[in-house]
Amino acid sequence: MSRPLLNRRLEGLGTTIFAEMSARALVTGSVNLGQGFPDRDGPAKIAQVAADAILAGRGNQYPPGPGVPELRQAIAAHDERFYGLRYDPDGEILVTAGATEAIAAAMLALVEPGDEVIAFEPYYDSYAANIAMAGGVRVPVTLRPPHFRPDLAELTKAITPRTRLILLNSPHNPTGSVFTRDELAAIAALAVERDLLVVTDEVYEHLVFDGEHVPIVRFPGMRDRTVSVSSAGKTFSFTGWKIGWVTASPELVTAVKTAKQFLTFVSGGPFQYAVAEALALPDEYYARLRDDLMAQRDLLCAGLSEIGFEVYQPQGTYFVTADIKRLGFQDGVDFCRNLPDRAGVVAIPTAIFYDHPQAARGHVRFAFCKRPEVLTEALRRLSRLTRR
Ligand SMILES: Cc1ncc(COP(=O)(O)O)c(C=O)c1O
């Protein structure tokens, strides 16, 4: 065939680094601190709800397009309970196949070919793919170490008449930074002033250790221009269930639903009932999740520092970014490719999350959503690096 097979928009996207590194972890018997999935499942009683739903024939056939009513009501109740937000379960909430589909559908629905989409780099890898699929033009604004704060002057400069939307992610993967109230207020003010949409990925909303999670939709003028995205994967430690959702104005939800219905149409019927119950878990559940992860963060960060990494302590999420240069290494991609053989550990080079990879040449990301004994074992193995 004379023509390349792959659509040109998708050129260069390759296989996700997570698939490549998780496969290397299996082959080499490495401790996998690459991909962000917990090594303990979420609450057994929530898993039981899903099992019961399957056996009782609830959700085994196509659920309603927007999601089962019980889940939409639970999402509305959750957003009111934690943030004082009010969304109408009928028309302002859409259940999706994880946050991943929500973001893809939002890009396909809202971005015209040639529209510019501003995203803070480093960014979660599906953003680049989704913007490309929509024919949009990615415009990165760089978060820089040590604190990875959004540079508002740079953001202002990045906005042009072709800018359609800002794609936000706080708590932020991979840097772990949590945007402050002031930063979000300034971003919101810019969105209003320049008449931009904001798509905000808040899948780590309950994983904040320092600071607070403030949904950007709460700022003046944002209710009708914000598509908020979240998901059950991280909050309830069931990343395989892929139940996510969008909350937005009826017009925006209708737009996103138009794209979503031709991606998966619907998904995960029985899991939707289980997530509805999970969202109503008492405050202690959410506090315990955060406290356990914070202890894991502290364990991994302290251990990495002791080994000699320069550690950028995250305020939230599952991840810590560390600089390898003090250990005598330069390039994070080479370092991570060799790490399974050299030390029996898998990590991810954060340069792959940038359009300007030189900004993060020596940075690698470790996931700490693993049992303490697994993290301790990873640290024991990593300490070999200093005994070369
Ligand atoms: C920032 C961010 N957004 C979205 C997702 C995907 O969420 P889901 O599994 O619900 O599709 C992830 C998963 O790692 C993530 O880190």
Question: What layout of secondary structure does this protein have?
Answer:
Layout: H1 17-28, E1 31-32, H2 44-55, H3 69-83, E2 93-97, H4 98-110, E3 116-121, H5 125-133, E4 137-142, H6 152-158, E5 163-169, H7 181-193, E6 197-201, E7 226-231, H8 232-236, E8 243-247, H9 250-260, H10 269-279, H11 283-307, E9 310-312, E10 319-323, H12 332-343, E11 345-346, E12 348-349, E13 363-367, H13 372-382
Parallel strand pairs: 1-11, 3-4, 3-5, 5-6, 6-7
Antiparallel strand pairs: 2-8, 7-8, 9-10, 10-13, 12-13
Helix pairs in contact: 2-10, 3-10, 4-5, 4-9, 11-13
In short:
With 388 residues, the protein is an alpha/beta fold.
Are there runs of 5+ residues with pLDDT below 50, and where?
none
User: For the largest beta sheet, what order do the strands appear in spatially?
Assistant: 2-8-7-6-5-3-4
Bound molecules: pyridoxal-5'-phosphate
Please report the total strand number as a whole number: 13
Compressed to H and E, one letter per element, the order equals HEHHEHEHEHEHEEHEHHHEEHEEEH
Please give the largest β-sheet: 7 strands, mixed
Describe the structure.
There is one protein chain. This protein is of the alpha/beta class and 388 residues long. Helices cover 40% and strands 15% of the residues. The protein contains 13 helices and 13 strands. It has helices at 17-28, 44-55, 69-83, 98-110, 125-133, 152-158, 181-193, 232-236, 250-260, 269-279, 283-307, 332-343, 372-382; strands at 31-32, 93-97, 116-121, 137-142, 163-169, 197-201, 226-231, 243-247, 310-312, 319-323, 345-346, 348-349, 363-367. Strands 2-8-7-6-5-3-4 form a seven-stranded mixed sheet, sandwiched between helices. It has a four-stranded antiparallel sheet with strand order 9-10-13-12. The model has no long low-confidence stretch (mean pLDDT 95). The structure holds pyridoxal-5'-phosphate.
